[in-house]
Amino acid sequence: MSNDLSKDVLSAIKKKTGKNITTNSVSKIANTVQPDSLENEVELRKLVRSIADMAKIKMNDTQFEHIVKTIKSSGMKTSNIETLMKILIK
Hints:
single chain, mainly alpha
């Protein structure tokens, strides 16, 4: 992750949730992402849930489904995990 973007993401999460998220916790999740994680719906759902849990963001089923659908339709690549985090914290 680029240092400036990482700080922006972590700052946005802190602002949204009031919780401090460390680069270490983000790295742990990022290290679990495989090239097909965003293409495999089961893996995508696990990833979204992991990020939401790490950031202490509560989502109802509708919000969760909307996020999964948005990610799937975006064609986002696993190399851009920070974009995924930005989608979650909006």
